[in-house]
Amino acid sequence: GENVEQHPSTLSVQEGDSAVIKCTYSDSASNYFPWYKQELGKGPQLIIDIRSNVGEKKDQRIAVTLNKTAKHFSLHITETQPEDSAVYFCAAQLNSGYSTLTFGKGTMLLVSP
Amino acid sequence: DSGVTQTPKHLITATGQRVTLRCSPRSGDLSVYWYQQSLDQGLQFLIQYYNGEERAKGNILERFSAQQFPDLHSELNLSSLELGDSALYFCASSVAGSGTDTQYFGPGTRLTVL
Q1: In 3D, which of B41, B46, B112 has the Cα closest to residue B76?
Q2: Residue A6 DSSP SS3
Q3: What's the pLDDT tens digit per position in A41-100?
């Protein structure tokens, strides 16, 4: 089955800095890659996703890049703010039949004022 | 607010007991997914239902079972509970449950087994 590795497990930055979280996946047939943000005491919330026919997608301060050849994808957050502090999860999914999401272990992002 | 609701928010019970967790999907979503989140295992997929039928199974123990009712709400039943079953249980829903549907997560149920 699919295996998703996520790094780093924790990331501390100063407000205004950029943050980058990286994930690799094992199954080259995976072609949907969502990112979720989980705040304390809440469920994961989708913040951005990318499909394998696209190399990059941007939404305001958040961007995701995908390298299908290397089987890795990354989340980039620019101009970080304290409210960006949360746990971020990447995931991968096959676009076939009724496949399911495989999640990375998560990255705890701490943005200091 | 994702539109997915879960009850109860917290559940404290003893080993050997049985509990039922409930999930209502977003309006219009036909598919429901259950996940377990623990500190050491991360988010683990348990089981998926689509329009009342089991669609996919993940790392779900035999002591656990689920069903989806005609009104599309779902219940996850956990029996013969062990200390290691203490975790956050999330429900997610999506429109169809195939291909690359976006999954929307509920707020979760925190289960503590004493």
Answers
A1: B46
A2: strand
A3: 899 999 999 987 778 999 999 999 999 999 999 999 999 999 999 999 999 987 666 668
> Of the candidates B61, B8, B60, which has an alpha carbon nearest to the alpha carbon of residue B33?
B60
Q: Do A103 and B90 touch (CB under 8 A)?
A: no
pLDDT of B110 reads 96
Choose the closest CB to A43 out of B2, B42, B58: B2
Contact criterion met (CB below 8 Å) for A59 and A48: yes
Residue contact B55–A98, C-beta within 8 A: yes
Tokens coding A28:
């080259």
A41, A93, A105 ranked by CB distance to B42: nearest: A105
